[in-house]
Amino acid sequence: GEEVAQTPKHLVRGEGQKAKLYCAPIKGHSYVFWYQQVLKNEFKFLISFQNENVFDETGMPKERFSAKCLPNSPCSLEIQATKLEDSAVYFCASSQSQVNTEAFFGQGTRLTVV
Amino acid sequence: DQQVKQNSPSLSVQEGRISILNCDYTNSMFDYFLWYKKYPAEGPTFLISISSIKDKNEDGRFTVFLNKSAKHLSLHIVPSQPGDSAVYFCAASDQTGANNLFFGTGTRLTVIP
């Protein structure tokens, strides 16, 4: 597609439940990134993929967070046993190449853990 | 540790005047810088970028200036228009090739008609 598509737009989960977020990158883009915006204006890098391979996962909380980008499927970010502090807007972005190029962002998924 | 800083949380400018948004960074390995614009409930939209080999890049009403020695960049919007009212984020990436972006905390620009 011509834009990064994220679903769902909003997600509400009880504490301890699982949350799964989806992202379809722009067609032809090899790199996918996930960011978490917790406070209103702070973006935290979580993980990036080059096609289906994890490229950089230095930002991922390893215990409960996992992510995949499988061929012919939307990428996904899964949070097991959600906690209140996981409430945030999760943005997916994609880019054509590895360096010195802009990333295009989706509209985000707002996760609320209650 | 915030490696990219935008020290002005907000800025108000009269329509037609120049808007100047500032950004400082601490990591000397950063070599590519971007500005994104964000409206509420939307994702950031890419505006303009600059590589560390340049000190200026212009695109229509938007110009980005980079001062590497001061680790400072700025975005100039001239003339400012009411539709420019949004939150502006400065972002940077480094030479490791990972290309993940380090963001500032944003500056809310309000252009007054």
Largest interface pair: A-B, 27 and 24 residues
Average predicted local confidence, pLDDT of chain B: 94
Written as H for each helix and E for each strand, in order along the chain, the element string of chain B is EEEEEEEEEEE
Characterize the biggest β-sheet of chain A: 7 strands, mixed
CA gyration radius of chain A, whole angstroms: 13 Å
Which parts of chain B are unreliable, with pLDDT below 50 for 5 consecutive residues or more?
none
Q: Enumerate how many helices of chain B there are, as a single number.
A: 0
Q: Give the oligomeric state of the chains in this entry, treating copies of one chain as homo and distinct chains as hetero.
A: heterodimer
* Span between termini of chain B: 38 Å
Query: Percentage of helical residues of chain A?
Result: under 10%
> What helical percentage do the residues of chain B reach?
under 10%
Describe it for me?
The complex is a heterodimer of chains A (114) and B (113). With 114 residues, chain A is mainly β. Chain A has no helices and eleven strands. Chain A has strands at 5-7, 10-13, 19-24, 31-37, 43-50, 53-56, 65-68, 75-79, 88-95, 104-105, 109-113. In chain A, strand 9 (88-95) and strand 10 (104-105) form a beta hairpin. Chain A is globular and about 35 Å long. In chain A, 35% of the residues are buried. The mean pLDDT of chain A is 92. With 113 residues, chain B is mainly beta. In chain B, 0% of the residues lie in helices and 56% in strands. Chain B contains no helices and eleven strands. Chain B has strands at residues 4-5, 10-14, 19-25, 30-38, 45-51, 56-59, 62-67, 72-77, 86-94, 102-103, 107-112. In chain B, strands 2, 4, 5, 9, 10 and 11 form a six-stranded mixed beta sheet that branches. Chain B has a five-stranded antiparallel beta sheet with strand order 1-3-8-7-6, with no helix packed on it. Chain B is globular and about 45 Å long. Chain B starts with a strand and ends with a strand. The mean pLDDT of chain B is 94. The chains are: A mainly beta (114), B mainly beta (113). At the A-B interface, strand 4, strand 5, strand 9 and strand 10 of A face strand 4, strand 5, strand 9 and strand 10 of B.
